[in-house]
Design goal:
With 272 residues, this protein is an alpha/beta fold. It has helices spanning 11-27, 45-60, 81-93, 105-109, 113-123, 152-158, 160-175, 185-202, 232-246, 252-255, and strands spanning 2-4, 8-9, 33-36, 42-43, 65-68, 132-133, 136-138, 142-145, 214-217, 219-222, 256-257, 262-263, 268-271. It has 10 helices and 13 strands. Helix 1 runs parallel beside helix 2 and helix 3 crosses helix 5 (113-123).
Amino acid sequence: MTIKFGTKFSELQIDEFISEIYNYIKSGKTDKIYFDLTEIEWISNQGLVLFTGVLKYLIEKDISFEVIFIEKGISTLRIPERVAKVIIQLWEIYGIYKVIPDYEYRKYFGIDIDTIISLKNNFGINYTSPELFGNYGITPFVCLNFIEKYDEAIVRHELNEYHRLNSALIDLVNEKKCAHPFLSNLFGDIISKEVYENFLEHAGNSFFNTQNDFAFFSLSLKGSLNEERNISSLIQKLLENNFSTEELPNTKSFFYNTKTNKYKNFNYISYS
């Protein structure tokens, strides 16, 4: 079975994706799953966390799959620069390779660190900020374990890595001259602890039927469009296009100002 990704994978595309996975697993089929990402140009934070989680569960269930970043037989010299950037960011910054056991990257991804080095050399790409993803900030995913018997000390220990990412995002938010209450140390601690404990209390059997349960956290900051470089009408067209190709219709009130009849050009944080 092949699941073909378009140029974007965001909230608007998630339903169809998870339905294909669900139907495949319910059918009891055993043929290999191919995730074709050769045309991908942008993935939302929510899409990344979901996709990573699915890969983790497929590995747990020993279901054969391969993520196709580059068409077989195609030289890295022929990869569009924008696609090359996505591949490098997914690998080096988001750390998608971490879900693969025993360093079998070629088996599951068809690429490895040598491919990444080649792409970086071809396009002169060198990301110096490890917490950034393209033109918006994103922290690497965090896999949190399911713990049957836990107390406050254990929960806080599990959340250490999450708080490190939270601290990195604080720096990014300050750089963008914006703020968010979830990022304050006290409130951020309370929210993340509540979310994780809620997972621990309500985790149950899913249709994946695996021996282990996991929770995944990721944070991102999506920046506003540069108003100095773009005229207002162009920004509105870009914002409208981004909303129509990425977001669910019932979330429009978050992105659209009904008083000005314009899409909001603002920084916002995505918690997944």
